[in-house]
Amino acid sequence: xxxxxxxxGFLFSSTGSYELVSRSMLNxxxxxxxxxxxxxxxxxxxxxxxxxxxxxxxxxxxxxxxLRRNIRHVVGCYTSSSRKEVIPLFxxxxxxxxxxxxxxxxxxxxxxIYTGAAPNQHVLPLVEYLLQHHGHRAFCVGSNxxxxxxxxxxxxxxxxxxxxxxxxxxxxxxxxEDFGQVIEAILEARPSFVFLTLIGTSAYKFFRDFRAACRAxxxxxxxxxxxxxxxLSEPELEAIGxxxxxxxxxxxxxxxxxxxxxxxxxxxxxxxxYPERSTASADAEASYNAVWLLAHAAVTAKSTDPxxxxxxxxxxxxxxxxxxxxIDEQTFHAYLTPRIGRSNRGARFDLVxxxxxxxxxxxxxxxxSSRFEAxxxxxxxxxx
Length: 384
Hints:
Layout: E1 5-11, H1 19-37, E2 44-50, H2 56-68, E3 73-76, H3 80-93, E4 96-99, E5 112-114, H4 119-133, E6 137-143, H5 146-161, E7 165-172, H6 180-189, E8 193-197, H7 200-216, H8 221-224, E9 227-229, H9 234-240, E10 249-252, H10 261-273, H11 282-301, H12 306-313, E11 318-320, E12 323-327, E13 334-335, E14 339-343, E15 349-355, E16 380-382
Parallel strand pairs: 1-2, 1-3, 3-4, 4-5, 6-7, 6-8, 8-9, 9-10
Antiparallel strand pairs: 10-14, 11-12, 12-13, 14-15, 15-16
Helix pairs in contact: 1-11, 2-3, 4-5, 6-7, 7-9, 11-12
Protein backbone atom coordinates (compact mmCIF):
# COMPACT_ATOMS: atom_id res chain seq x y z
CA UNK A 1 0.00 0.00 0.00
CA UNK A 2 1.41 3.40 -0.99
CA UNK A 3 1.72 6.06 1.73
CA UNK A 4 -1.47 8.05 2.15
CA UNK A 5 0.11 11.17 3.63
CA UNK A 6 3.46 12.89 3.40
CA UNK A 7 4.40 16.11 5.16
CA UNK A 8 6.48 18.43 2.99
CA GLY A 9 8.03 21.72 4.03
CA PHE A 10 8.36 24.68 1.65
CA LEU A 11 11.07 27.22 2.39
CA PHE A 12 10.85 30.20 0.04
CA SER A 13 11.34 33.93 0.58
CA SER A 14 8.02 35.29 -0.60
CA THR A 15 9.17 38.70 0.67
CA GLY A 16 12.55 40.39 0.35
CA SER A 17 14.84 41.56 -2.45
CA TYR A 18 14.41 38.44 -4.61
CA GLU A 19 10.77 37.77 -3.76
CA LEU A 20 9.54 37.75 -7.38
CA VAL A 21 11.41 34.58 -8.25
CA SER A 22 10.87 32.97 -4.84
CA ARG A 23 7.12 33.60 -5.01
CA SER A 24 6.98 31.97 -8.43
CA MET A 25 8.89 28.98 -7.00
CA LEU A 26 6.39 28.63 -4.16
CA ASN A 27 3.54 28.99 -6.65
CA UNK A 28 4.94 26.20 -8.81
CA UNK A 29 5.45 23.92 -5.84
CA UNK A 30 1.94 24.47 -4.43
CA UNK A 31 0.38 23.99 -7.86
CA UNK A 32 2.03 20.57 -7.97
CA UNK A 33 0.69 19.80 -4.48
CA UNK A 34 -2.87 20.59 -5.58
CA UNK A 35 -2.55 18.52 -8.74
CA UNK A 36 -1.04 15.55 -6.91
CA UNK A 37 -3.70 15.60 -4.18
CA UNK A 38 -6.41 15.61 -6.86
CA UNK A 39 -4.74 13.09 -9.16
CA UNK A 40 -5.67 9.79 -7.58
CA UNK A 41 -1.97 8.98 -7.16
CA UNK A 42 -2.77 7.45 -3.75
CA UNK A 43 -0.75 10.02 -1.87
CA UNK A 44 -1.72 13.24 -0.14
CA UNK A 45 0.84 15.99 0.47
CA UNK A 46 0.41 18.10 3.59
CA UNK A 47 2.33 21.35 2.98
CA UNK A 48 3.95 23.56 5.62
CA UNK A 49 5.08 26.90 4.18
CA UNK A 50 7.65 29.11 5.90
CA UNK A 51 9.04 32.44 4.67
CA UNK A 52 12.65 33.43 5.53
CA UNK A 53 12.08 36.88 4.00
CA UNK A 54 15.41 36.85 2.18
CA UNK A 55 17.29 36.93 5.52
CA UNK A 56 20.10 34.38 5.44
CA UNK A 57 20.03 33.50 9.13
CA UNK A 58 16.30 32.77 8.92
CA UNK A 59 16.85 29.90 6.51
CA UNK A 60 18.69 27.79 9.06
CA UNK A 61 16.30 28.77 11.85
CA UNK A 62 13.20 27.86 9.83
CA UNK A 63 14.76 24.71 8.38
CA UNK A 64 15.46 23.62 11.96
CA UNK A 65 11.81 24.31 12.79
CA UNK A 66 10.62 22.06 9.96
CA LEU A 67 13.06 19.26 10.78
CA ARG A 68 12.18 19.30 14.47
CA ARG A 69 8.55 18.80 13.46
CA ASN A 70 9.77 15.57 11.87
CA ILE A 71 9.24 16.88 8.34
CA ARG A 72 11.78 14.88 6.35
CA HIS A 73 11.31 16.47 2.91
CA VAL A 74 11.73 20.19 2.27
CA VAL A 75 11.47 21.90 -1.11
CA GLY A 76 13.13 25.27 -1.05
CA CYS A 77 15.92 27.86 -1.19
CA TYR A 78 16.67 30.08 -4.17
CA THR A 79 20.12 31.49 -3.46
CA SER A 80 23.20 29.32 -3.11
CA SER A 81 24.04 31.00 0.18
CA SER A 82 20.72 29.87 1.64
CA ARG A 83 21.27 26.34 0.36
CA LYS A 84 24.76 26.23 1.88
CA GLU A 85 23.29 27.52 5.14
CA VAL A 86 20.79 24.67 5.55
CA ILE A 87 22.58 21.63 4.11
CA PRO A 88 24.39 20.76 7.39
CA LEU A 89 20.99 20.55 9.11
CA PHE A 90 19.63 18.13 6.51
CA UNK A 91 22.74 16.00 6.84
CA UNK A 92 22.44 16.04 10.64
CA UNK A 93 18.77 14.97 10.56
CA UNK A 94 19.18 12.65 7.56
CA UNK A 95 16.41 14.47 5.70
CA UNK A 96 16.15 15.52 2.04
CA UNK A 97 16.35 19.05 0.67
CA UNK A 98 14.81 19.29 -2.80
CA UNK A 99 16.71 22.24 -4.31
CA UNK A 100 14.84 23.68 -7.32
CA UNK A 101 17.15 26.42 -8.58
CA UNK A 102 19.83 26.75 -11.23
CA UNK A 103 23.17 27.03 -9.47
CA UNK A 104 26.93 27.23 -9.84
CA UNK A 105 27.72 23.55 -9.28
CA UNK A 106 30.75 22.06 -7.51
CA UNK A 107 28.59 20.46 -4.86
CA UNK A 108 26.94 17.08 -4.30
CA UNK A 109 25.37 16.45 -0.91
CA UNK A 110 23.90 13.05 -0.15
CA UNK A 111 20.94 14.88 1.38
CA UNK A 112 20.01 17.07 -1.59
CA ILE A 113 18.08 16.36 -4.80
CA TYR A 114 18.96 19.06 -7.36
CA THR A 115 16.18 19.77 -9.88
CA GLY A 116 17.62 23.05 -11.20
CA ALA A 117 20.32 23.46 -13.83
CA ALA A 118 23.98 22.57 -13.20
CA PRO A 119 26.74 24.72 -14.78
CA ASN A 120 27.15 22.56 -17.88
CA GLN A 121 23.42 23.06 -18.54
CA HIS A 122 23.37 26.86 -18.36
CA VAL A 123 26.77 28.57 -17.93
CA LEU A 124 28.73 26.72 -20.63
CA PRO A 125 25.95 26.92 -23.27
CA LEU A 126 25.73 30.67 -22.67
CA VAL A 127 29.50 31.09 -23.01
CA GLU A 128 29.45 29.25 -26.33
CA TYR A 129 26.60 31.39 -27.63
CA LEU A 130 28.21 34.66 -26.56
CA LEU A 131 31.60 33.85 -28.06
CA GLN A 132 30.06 32.76 -31.35
CA HIS A 133 27.64 35.65 -31.75
CA HIS A 134 28.91 38.64 -29.75
CA GLY A 135 32.67 38.55 -29.19
CA HIS A 136 35.41 37.60 -26.76
CA ARG A 137 35.61 40.51 -24.29
CA ALA A 138 33.52 40.07 -21.13
CA PHE A 139 32.71 42.41 -18.24
CA CYS A 140 31.27 40.65 -15.16
CA VAL A 141 28.90 42.29 -12.66
CA GLY A 142 27.42 40.26 -9.82
CA SER A 143 26.00 40.00 -6.33
CA ASN A 144 28.70 39.39 -3.75
CA UNK A 145 28.22 35.73 -2.89
CA UNK A 146 29.05 32.26 -4.15
CA UNK A 147 26.62 32.24 -7.10
CA UNK A 148 28.41 35.13 -8.80
CA UNK A 149 31.94 34.17 -7.74
CA UNK A 150 31.73 30.64 -9.12
CA UNK A 151 29.84 31.46 -12.30
CA UNK A 152 32.33 34.21 -13.09
CA UNK A 153 35.18 31.79 -12.48
CA UNK A 154 33.68 29.25 -14.90
CA UNK A 155 33.06 31.95 -17.49
CA UNK A 156 36.55 33.43 -17.04
CA UNK A 157 38.32 30.12 -17.53
CA UNK A 158 36.14 29.23 -20.50
CA UNK A 159 36.57 32.59 -22.23
CA UNK A 160 40.32 32.80 -21.71
CA UNK A 161 40.76 29.21 -22.94
CA UNK A 162 39.38 30.43 -26.28
CA UNK A 163 41.64 33.46 -26.51
CA UNK A 164 39.15 35.91 -24.99
CA UNK A 165 39.45 38.08 -21.90
CA UNK A 166 37.49 39.22 -18.88
CA UNK A 167 38.04 42.96 -18.65
CA UNK A 168 36.81 43.30 -15.07
CA UNK A 169 34.70 41.73 -12.31
CA UNK A 170 32.64 43.91 -9.97
CA UNK A 171 30.57 42.69 -7.01
CA UNK A 172 27.79 44.34 -5.00
CA UNK A 173 25.80 43.49 -1.89
CA UNK A 174 22.47 41.75 -2.50
CA UNK A 175 19.90 44.55 -2.76
CA UNK A 176 22.40 47.24 -3.82
CA GLU A 177 21.01 49.68 -6.41
CA ASP A 178 23.81 52.22 -6.98
CA PHE A 179 25.51 51.23 -10.24
CA GLY A 180 26.57 54.57 -11.68
CA GLN A 181 30.30 53.97 -11.30
CA VAL A 182 30.36 50.46 -12.73
CA ILE A 183 28.20 51.51 -15.67
CA GLU A 184 30.70 54.26 -16.49
CA ALA A 185 33.49 51.67 -16.31
CA ILE A 186 31.62 49.39 -18.71
CA LEU A 187 31.02 52.18 -21.20
CA GLU A 188 34.68 53.14 -21.08
CA ALA A 189 35.83 49.51 -21.56
CA ARG A 190 33.27 48.73 -24.31
CA PRO A 191 33.17 44.95 -23.77
CA SER A 192 31.56 42.53 -26.22
CA PHE A 193 28.97 41.70 -23.54
CA VAL A 194 28.16 42.07 -19.86
CA PHE A 195 27.78 38.83 -17.89
CA LEU A 196 25.31 39.67 -15.14
CA THR A 197 25.02 37.64 -11.92
CA LEU A 198 23.20 40.28 -9.90
CA ILE A 199 19.97 38.95 -8.38
CA GLY A 200 16.61 40.44 -7.49
CA THR A 201 16.07 44.19 -7.26
CA SER A 202 19.77 44.82 -7.90
CA ALA A 203 19.50 43.22 -11.35
CA TYR A 204 16.33 45.09 -12.29
CA LYS A 205 17.90 48.45 -11.39
CA PHE A 206 21.06 47.63 -13.32
CA PHE A 207 19.12 46.81 -16.48
CA ARG A 208 17.21 50.10 -16.28
CA ASP A 209 20.22 52.28 -15.50
CA PHE A 210 22.49 50.63 -18.07
CA ARG A 211 19.93 51.00 -20.85
CA ALA A 212 19.35 54.65 -19.91
CA ALA A 213 23.09 55.41 -19.85
CA CYS A 214 23.59 53.78 -23.25
CA ARG A 215 20.60 55.57 -24.73
CA ALA A 216 21.95 58.92 -23.50
CA UNK A 217 25.17 58.24 -25.43
CA UNK A 218 23.46 57.03 -28.60
CA UNK A 219 24.49 53.40 -27.99
CA UNK A 220 22.18 50.59 -29.08
CA UNK A 221 22.77 48.64 -25.87
CA UNK A 222 21.03 45.39 -26.80
CA UNK A 223 23.00 45.14 -30.05
CA UNK A 224 26.35 46.68 -29.10
CA UNK A 225 26.79 45.65 -25.44
CA UNK A 226 24.24 42.91 -24.69
CA UNK A 227 23.63 41.82 -21.12
CA UNK A 228 23.61 38.05 -20.58
CA UNK A 229 22.46 36.14 -17.53
CA UNK A 230 21.89 32.61 -16.26
CA UNK A 231 19.06 33.65 -13.96
CA LEU A 232 16.87 36.24 -15.70
CA SER A 233 13.25 34.99 -15.88
CA GLU A 234 9.87 36.21 -17.08
CA PRO A 235 8.55 37.67 -13.78
CA GLU A 236 11.75 39.71 -13.57
CA LEU A 237 11.35 41.03 -17.11
CA GLU A 238 8.03 42.50 -16.02
CA ALA A 239 9.78 44.15 -13.05
CA ILE A 240 12.46 45.75 -15.26
CA GLY A 241 9.86 47.82 -17.08
CA UNK A 242 9.05 48.71 -20.68
CA UNK A 243 11.99 51.04 -21.25
CA UNK A 244 14.65 48.36 -20.74
CA UNK A 245 12.93 44.98 -21.05
CA UNK A 246 14.04 43.83 -24.48
CA UNK A 247 17.24 42.43 -25.98
CA UNK A 248 18.69 40.63 -22.96
CA UNK A 249 20.04 37.09 -23.19
CA UNK A 250 19.21 34.39 -20.68
CA UNK A 251 20.47 30.82 -20.48
CA UNK A 252 17.94 28.47 -18.94
CA UNK A 253 16.33 25.06 -19.25
CA UNK A 254 12.81 26.48 -19.29
CA UNK A 255 11.04 29.45 -20.84
CA UNK A 256 7.30 30.13 -20.95
CA UNK A 257 7.55 30.33 -24.74
CA UNK A 258 8.17 26.56 -25.13
CA UNK A 259 5.43 25.27 -27.43
CA UNK A 260 4.64 21.81 -26.11
CA UNK A 261 1.35 20.33 -24.88
CA UNK A 262 2.85 19.79 -21.41
CA UNK A 263 4.00 23.38 -21.12
CA UNK A 264 0.79 24.88 -22.46
CA UNK A 265 -1.18 22.82 -19.93
CA UNK A 266 1.21 23.94 -17.15
CA UNK A 267 0.84 27.60 -18.10
CA UNK A 268 -2.97 27.36 -18.19
CA UNK A 269 -3.01 25.71 -14.77
CA UNK A 270 -0.55 28.26 -13.36
CA UNK A 271 -2.55 31.21 -14.68
CA UNK A 272 -5.79 29.73 -13.38
CA UNK A 273 -4.34 29.13 -9.92
CA TYR A 274 -2.54 32.49 -9.70
CA PRO A 275 -4.53 34.92 -11.87
CA GLU A 276 -2.87 37.98 -10.34
CA ARG A 277 0.64 36.52 -10.50
CA SER A 278 0.30 34.47 -13.63
CA THR A 279 3.88 34.46 -14.90
CA ALA A 280 5.83 31.27 -14.39
CA SER A 281 9.62 30.98 -14.43
CA ALA A 282 12.36 28.38 -14.78
CA ASP A 283 12.59 28.10 -11.01
CA ALA A 284 8.82 27.76 -10.70
CA GLU A 285 9.00 24.86 -13.14
CA ALA A 286 11.91 23.28 -11.25
CA SER A 287 9.90 23.52 -8.01
CA TYR A 288 6.86 22.00 -9.71
CA ASN A 289 9.02 19.17 -11.04
CA ALA A 290 10.60 18.55 -7.63
CA VAL A 291 7.24 18.00 -5.94
CA TRP A 292 6.01 15.68 -8.69
CA LEU A 293 9.24 13.65 -8.60
CA LEU A 294 9.02 13.39 -4.81
CA ALA A 295 5.42 12.17 -4.99
CA HIS A 296 6.13 9.54 -7.64
CA ALA A 297 9.20 8.27 -5.79
CA ALA A 298 7.32 8.02 -2.48
CA VAL A 299 4.49 6.07 -4.10
CA THR A 300 6.92 3.70 -5.81
CA ALA A 301 8.93 3.25 -2.60
CA LYS A 302 5.74 2.73 -0.57
CA SER A 303 7.45 4.86 2.05
CA THR A 304 8.14 8.49 2.91
CA ASP A 305 11.52 7.63 4.43
CA PRO A 306 14.16 9.83 2.74
CA UNK A 307 16.50 6.91 2.04
CA UNK A 308 13.74 4.88 0.42
CA UNK A 309 12.56 7.85 -1.63
CA UNK A 310 16.10 8.59 -2.76
CA UNK A 311 16.57 4.98 -3.85
CA UNK A 312 13.49 5.26 -6.07
CA UNK A 313 13.97 8.79 -7.42
CA UNK A 314 16.49 7.66 -10.06
CA UNK A 315 13.84 5.43 -11.65
CA UNK A 316 11.32 8.22 -12.21
CA UNK A 317 10.75 9.86 -15.62
CA UNK A 318 8.73 13.07 -15.70
CA UNK A 319 7.04 14.63 -18.73
CA UNK A 320 7.76 18.12 -17.43
CA UNK A 321 6.78 21.46 -19.00
CA UNK A 322 10.34 21.79 -20.38
CA UNK A 323 10.43 18.20 -21.69
CA UNK A 324 11.70 14.91 -20.27
CA UNK A 325 13.32 15.23 -16.83
CA UNK A 326 14.95 12.58 -14.69
CA ILE A 327 17.53 12.33 -11.91
CA ASP A 328 21.08 11.13 -12.51
CA GLU A 329 21.93 8.21 -10.22
CA GLN A 330 25.52 9.33 -9.67
CA THR A 331 25.04 13.02 -8.84
CA PHE A 332 21.32 13.29 -7.96
CA HIS A 333 21.11 16.27 -10.28
CA ALA A 334 18.56 16.39 -13.10
CA TYR A 335 18.87 15.70 -16.80
CA LEU A 336 17.60 18.96 -18.33
CA THR A 337 17.43 20.64 -21.78
CA PRO A 338 19.61 23.77 -22.19
CA ARG A 339 18.12 26.74 -24.04
CA ILE A 340 19.04 30.35 -24.82
CA GLY A 341 16.38 33.06 -24.92
CA ARG A 342 16.37 36.72 -25.91
CA SER A 343 13.87 38.99 -24.16
CA ASN A 344 11.29 40.87 -26.20
CA ARG A 345 9.02 43.88 -25.69
CA GLY A 346 6.26 41.62 -24.41
CA ALA A 347 8.36 40.63 -21.37
CA ARG A 348 8.86 37.13 -22.70
CA PHE A 349 11.77 35.28 -24.29
CA ASP A 350 12.21 34.31 -27.92
CA LEU A 351 14.16 31.06 -28.17
CA VAL A 352 17.42 31.51 -30.11
CA UNK A 353 19.14 28.23 -29.19
CA UNK A 354 18.10 24.85 -27.87
CA UNK A 355 19.76 21.48 -27.17
CA UNK A 356 18.32 18.58 -29.12
CA UNK A 357 17.82 16.39 -26.02
CA UNK A 358 18.17 16.49 -22.22
CA UNK A 359 21.80 16.84 -21.13
CA UNK A 360 23.40 14.79 -18.37
CA UNK A 361 24.23 16.98 -15.37
CA UNK A 362 27.93 17.56 -14.74
CA UNK A 363 28.06 19.61 -11.52
CA UNK A 364 31.84 19.33 -11.14
CA UNK A 365 32.51 19.64 -14.89
CA UNK A 366 34.51 16.42 -14.68
CA UNK A 367 33.63 15.48 -18.25
CA UNK A 368 35.11 18.80 -19.38
CA SER A 369 38.79 19.48 -19.70
CA SER A 370 40.37 21.55 -16.97
CA ARG A 371 40.06 24.54 -19.32
CA PHE A 372 36.46 23.83 -20.39
CA GLU A 373 37.03 22.95 -24.02
CA ALA A 374 34.32 23.88 -26.48
CA UNK A 375 33.19 20.27 -26.83
CA UNK A 376 32.16 20.24 -23.17
CA UNK A 377 29.19 22.54 -23.76
CA UNK A 378 25.95 21.09 -25.16
CA UNK A 379 25.52 21.73 -28.86
CA UNK A 380 22.63 24.13 -29.35
CA UNK A 381 20.67 24.35 -32.58
CA UNK A 382 19.65 27.84 -33.62
CA UNK A 383 15.89 28.24 -33.49
CA UNK A 384 15.54 31.81 -34.66
